[in-house]
Design brief:
This protein is mostly helical. It contains five helices and eleven strands. InterPro entries: E3_ubiquitin-ligase_RING, Znf-RING_euk, Znf_CHY, Znf_CHY_sf, Znf_RING, Znf_RING/FYVE/PHD, Znf_RING_CS. Keywords: Metal-binding, Zinc, Zinc-finger. This is RING-type domain-containing protein.
């Protein structure tokens, strides 16, 4: 019976985490950890029992919940049989002890859940504050740019208007002179104007050669696209730490082969998991959220080309 409930590769009993039983096309089962390792090595899964290939991706392979239910049922039966073998007085004590252990386990789990909820709420408030601060900077920058452009337009227009005002003033002087002459002639006699004449204005002041082409130019389509895509919110696995306790400058998650969860470092993994850390051969870029082969740092993301310069110990 035990062999049926164990992975034929690693001989570990199936469970609901890293050793989740996967049903291959041939009908045999492998744990998720071993299936993942086989797939990463050869690009497919070959059943170790009948050597039949399974070309599906890991996420396409169904889980055998019947095996998990059977394991839990056997565990419950074993516990019941253990109690039945005891004398009534000892059985009562054992059952009370088990109930107390269950109570403590539930308390611990509630405490863990409460802590996670608090972490998420704290992260939410922190992220909202970061968004508000960042967009305040953007808003101020846009307002400053708007004021700069408006000032530039006003200065250019003022310079050109000043040129025309000069021409206007010169022409006004000629106009005033002609007006004075008319008033003089209206009141003059023939004797008064015997020796006078009115000379024509040969040339008015030249108009400035100004070609005003003020126009606000902006690539509105690209600007709107840019604004709509400012920022990014990464939604990471709840098993991954909200913040790394050991390093700063974390820009990627590592994916250890032991559980295929996202972790920033082995210390955070060991703090949250019951199994030891296994070498990570995959990584996830925090900028584009794309999983890729793990490479030594520093490096650039294979997909978005963002630079990962490496972590620094706190």
């Amino acid at each position: 019976m035990e062999g049926i409930l164990e992975c034929p590769v690693c001989a570990e009993q199936y469970d609901r985490s890293g050793h989740l039983p996967l049903v291959l096309i041939c009908g045999h089962t492998l744990c998720k950890r071993c299936a993942t390792n086989l797939h990463k090595t050869t690009g497919k899964i070959t059943c170790p029992l009948d050597r039949k290939p399974d070309n599906r991706q890991i996420q396409q392979i169904s889980h055998s919940f019947h095996i998990l239910d059977l394991i839990e049922h056997i565990s419950d039966m074993s516990q019941t049989l253990k109690y039945l073998k005891l004398p009534p007085s000892e059985r009562l004590i054992a059952m009370q002890k088990q109930a107390e252990e269950n109570l403590e386990k539930c308390k611990d789990h509630i405490g863990l859940v409460t802590t996670r909820i608090a972490e998420i709420r704290e992260k939410k408030e922190k992220t909202l504050a970061e968004i508000n601060e960042s967009f305040s900077v953007w808003k101020q920058a846009l307002e400053d740019r708007q004021q700069t452009l408006e000032t530039e337009v006003m200065n250019i227009a003022a310079e050109e208007i000043e040129k025309f005002e000069g021409v206007k003033n010169e022409t006004q002087e000629l106009f005033d002179g002609a007006n004075i002459t008319i008033e003089h002639l209206l009141n003059a006699t023939e004797e008064d104007i015997a020796s006078e004449d009115v000379k024509p204005i040969s040339q008015l002041p030249d108009l400035p050669t100004v070609d005003m082409k003020l126009k606000f130019v902006i690539d509105l389509e690209n600007a709107e696209h840019f604004i709509k895509h400012i920022g990014k919110i990464g939604k990471w696995s709840v098993t991954a730490p909200i913040e790394c306790d050991n390093y700063t400058n974390v820009t990627y998650w590592m994916v250890p082969s032991c559980c295929s969860q996202y972790y920033c470092c082995n210390k955070c993994h060991d703090k949250r998991e019951s199994h030891p850390w296994a070498y990570a051969n995959r990584m996830v870029c925090m900028f584009c959220e794309k999983e890729q082969d793990y490479r030594k740092l520093p490096n650039h993301c294979e997909f978005c080309n963002e630079y990962h310069k490496g972590v620094v110990s706190k």
